[in-house]
Write a structure and sequence with these properties.
It is built from seven helices and seven strands; from the N terminus they run H-H-H-E-E-H-H-H-E-E-E-E-E-H. The chain has about 160 residues and is of the alpha+beta class. About 35% of the residues are buried.
Length: about 160
Amino acid sequence: MDLAHPSTTAEWSEFLGGAGHPPAAEEDVLAAEERLGARLPPAYRNFLLASNGLSADVFAVDLLPAKEIGWLRETEPELLAAWSTPDMDFFADHAAVLAQCLLISLDDGGAGHYLFLHPGDGEWTAYEWWPGDGEDPSPHENFAAMAVELWEGER
């Protein structure tokens, strides 16, 4: 097993070591994909099948369950609109990409920590972003690479 780059459901289960939520049912993941109009990237899909979300108590941020993930433009249209205004030119530079991203985390009234997946072929590019820190969104090769980095930062 490659726990440095978990991909399969078994690898995610071992990686999380019991810290995850109960797994999503295949039907829940299929329903999310139907609702989104896209097949989820393999590593993230298998993560959901191992742990249907994850609590900020054990991870850097709350990861949403399959039924709550959604396109940023649909789940947070006010936030995206605010980031797209001319007086927010720093955010506006990223708005076009973010509008295409899947929001997979919950900023539960915290400092504004967001995790996104940007669609592509196979694995999707993952982004971590703290908009208030003045930095660009941090790209990661995929969900697994981002999750491992964040998990190690919490340990």
